[in-house]
Amino acid sequence: MGTRILEIPYPDDLPASLGETPEEFENLVRFLVAGKLYELGRISSGRAAELAGLGRVEFLEKLGERQISVFNYSFDELEWEILAAQESAEIGQTV
């Protein structure tokens, strides 16, 4: 599989205004793009980690540090999980 390069212009002073070096800023932007694509369910965590230039576990840890959910549930899946947990809790209370 080939690789393409995406160039994103930004003002020279932007990284410094955020307290970062240009390299740190570019890595942050790369991570945030990967994180958002993962959060939207567009790519897997493995593919997102690859895009961010990180290992999968490190990528997932950094998502949590940035308050980006590591769980990609649709509303229906989340509702099913909640119902299953409630039923499990009810069964545990009756025993």
Characterise this structure.
This protein has one domain (18-94). It has helices spanning 14-17, 22-39, 45-52, 56-65, 75-94. It is built from five helices and no strands.
Low-confidence stretches: none
Share of helix among residues? 55-70%
- Distance from first to last alpha carbon: 55 Å
Average per-residue pLDDT, rounded, comes to 88
**Which class do the helix and strand fractions yield?**
mainly alpha
Tell me the Rg in angstroms. 19 Å
Q: List the secondary-structure elements in sequence, H or E.
A: HHHHH
Largest sheet: none
The total domain count is 1
Give a quick precis of the structure.
With 95 residues, the protein is mostly helical.
Features:
single chain, 95 residues, elongated
SSE blueprint:
Blueprint: H1 14-17, H2 22-39, H3 45-52, H4 56-65, H5 75-94
Helix pairs in contact: 2-3, 3-4
